[in-house]
């Protein structure tokens, strides 16, 4: 009996990790999440471990599922700390690129430079952070930003240990 490479449940079947011919054993729940998009729930906590797999194809699938959970703070946190080799990351992104390519939201900084997830930006203005009780100072570098998927005017990043939403008009790409 084969086990799912992501969640370790039984009754797994082979799944091809496009665009390469590599195959991974997946249960029906994980397969459905990849094909139709995951919805946040306890099942996906398995991705905390799967992203660190020694098997590149498993890392690719875990990355794609985590990217499919932008509303889940825990998933964004896992993506923030995860490291994929450059060739594995490009493989993972290649599988995401063909989805929703025509209606993709483009995030740009104050100078019109296109921002990407993982970029480093610098604040161009002091920003009062509501609810956190501090001011993010001009010149502060915000590393490994996340893009808010449904709003081109917002990004997320960590400032003084707090995850905050920042308007793109107040940042410039570093």
From TrEMBL:
It holds the Pfam family YjdM. Residues 108-174 form the Protein YjdM C-terminal domain. InterPro entries: YjdM_C (IPR013988). This is PhnA domain-containing protein.
């Amino acid at each position: 009996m084969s086990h799912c490479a992501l969640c370790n449940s039984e009754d797994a079947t082979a799944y091809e990790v496009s665009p390469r011919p590599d195959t991974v054993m997946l249960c029906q729940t994980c397969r459905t999440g990849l094909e139709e998009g995951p919805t946040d729930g306890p099942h996906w906590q398995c991705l905390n471990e799967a992203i660190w797999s020694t098997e590149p194809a498993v890392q690719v699938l875990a990355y794609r599922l985590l990217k499919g959970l932008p509303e889940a703070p825990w998933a964004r946190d896992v993506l923030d700390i995860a490291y994929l080799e450059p060739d594995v990351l490009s493989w993972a992104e290649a599988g995401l690129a063909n989805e929703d390519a025509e209606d993709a939201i483009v995030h740009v900084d104050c100078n019109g430079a296109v921002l990407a997830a993982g970029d480093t930006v610098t604040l161009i203005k002091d920003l009062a952070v509501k609810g956190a009780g501090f001011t993010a100072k001009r010149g502060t570098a915000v590393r490994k930003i996340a893009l808010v998927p449904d709003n081109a005017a917002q990004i997320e990043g960590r400032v003084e240990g707090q995850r905050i939403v920042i308007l793109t008009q107040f940042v410039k790409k570093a």
